[in-house]
Amino acid sequence: MATLPAFFKKNDSAAEAPRGAEARTNRIRPVRDPFQLRALPHEHLFLYNKRIDNSRLVREADPKSKGACWSAIGAACVLAVLLTTAFAPSVATTIAGYKLEALRIEERRLLEEHRALELQEAELLSPARLDQLAQQNNLVAPSAGQVQRLEGKPQGAVAMAK
Length: 162
Prior knowledge:
The chain is mostly helical. The chain has four helices and no strands.
């Protein structure tokens, strides 16, 4: 256990002093050159990089890939049609709601315009305004003898075409 601190180890010198001392003295260490560098990891491996040119190769056509491609296109089209039919009612409802709201706004605008026109007509046809116009154009009220009543056509008379 190289990671344990030194105080957790038993003291080997008291129990095995003679044998440990002999083993230490009998061990011979080779003398190491102090200027020599240590070996690098994987120094013994040699990798060669060869350039490969595949530009002249032609890929062989796979007969199954064409059918798979068309089946994928068909499945995507079917999925698109299903999604369109599934979302069409909600989209149509939303568009109808927008049109309905636009028509309500137009109705409010037309009602306000109608009220304004009725007010303008009432102002133009008021008796005070008519009297003012009569005075500006030198018009006077007709006397009793000037009024002539028109008689309508008799009930049985029908115009004859020639």
